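Reading a protein record of the kind used here takes only a little practice. Think of the row as the fold of the chain written in a discrete alphabet. With that in mind, consider the following protein and its fold in token form:
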Amino acid sequence: MKSALVTGANKSIGFEVARQLAQKGVYVYLGSRNLENGMEAVNKLKSEGLSNVEVIQLDITDDESVKNARTEIGKKTKVLDILINNAGIYGGYPQAALDSTIEQFKNAYDANVYGVVRVTQAFIDLLKKSSEPRIVNVSSSQGSITLHSDPSYKYYDYKGAVYLSSKSAMNMYTVVLAYELRDSDFKINAVCPGYTKTDFNGHRGPGSVEDAGKRIIKYALIDKDGPTGKFFSEENNPETGVVPW
């Protein structure tokens, strides 16, 4: 049985990703900053007949929490097949380039960039032991510099200096990580789940968490001939999914 760690898995897209992976027979560790909320999420999945799930206390902004999560999962398995870096924050309002505070930038980058780095570096040894290691960094087409430079982009006027730049930085980390592991069995990609109706955006998005989950696990379960080092947003490119950085 393959195993996966999903960060921010106690609700919304992360929870749905955990559900869909579990439905496909993957043993899923649900990373949750709040352990009680994580336990509620696990109990909900178990009530649906999914027993191959387990909560792990994991605050991606806390070095000690990440280390403890690695220790706990290391006691249960010697191999991790899938890492989905889903947890993140928007960063509050306003997000104008001249009005956003340094504190907003620090908080957003701590979760959306440094958190991805913390978790990836902590679990890379377990991932390297997998025959088919996969890393999906949950991104946003909003992090595409190319799209946001194009007035015809449908979200062109949805600018935000904090969140957008943090996702752009995470995308670059994805590119470099995939490059460094290019001669291995790793497949590492950035995936935009689409503008989804969740707590994250005040339930304003038109997309469903079910569709968002499908888009993410598609790249968590790709075979050896699948892509690596790419940026996908099926909402923006339904044909191939590939979007520019």
